[in-house]
Amino acid sequence: MNVRPLPAQEGERPVAAGAFDRVTWALRRAELAMQAVKEPRLRSLGLSVAHYSLLISVHNHPGLTGAELARRMGVTPQAVAALADRLVGRGQVERRTHPRHRRVQELHLTAAGRAVLRLADAVVAEIELKITEQLGRADTATLRALLERVAVAAREL
What we know:
By secondary structure, the protein is mainly alpha-helical. The chain has six helices and two strands.
């Protein structure tokens, strides 16, 4: 997908002709496509992709604070607080006071949270299986390894 350069206004640099050919843009298109597939399927469980991300993050790291989750998820603490509030209201997540720092609230899954996470994860696993079947075992392994390298390179910037 080659795009013509965008003419620059006075004092601006032009947008490169190959902007849509960049790896970062390909990653974004892939993520948007995955969101579009996952969102309606998770909605049938009353969850958004963001809710699923928070639930699985809390499952993998119980006791994280909202700020810690925000850093891991790449969103603002306010976004995590809003997601957590909704899940707390549904009885899927609970806040517990940190044992040493009384003002710090840790997030933990409830039994209801674990139950809905199992259902949601089965939905995501089914999507993953269909994609990996299309890619094949070797390309799937290569893609995973390359994405790990991208993550490492991005952290080193």
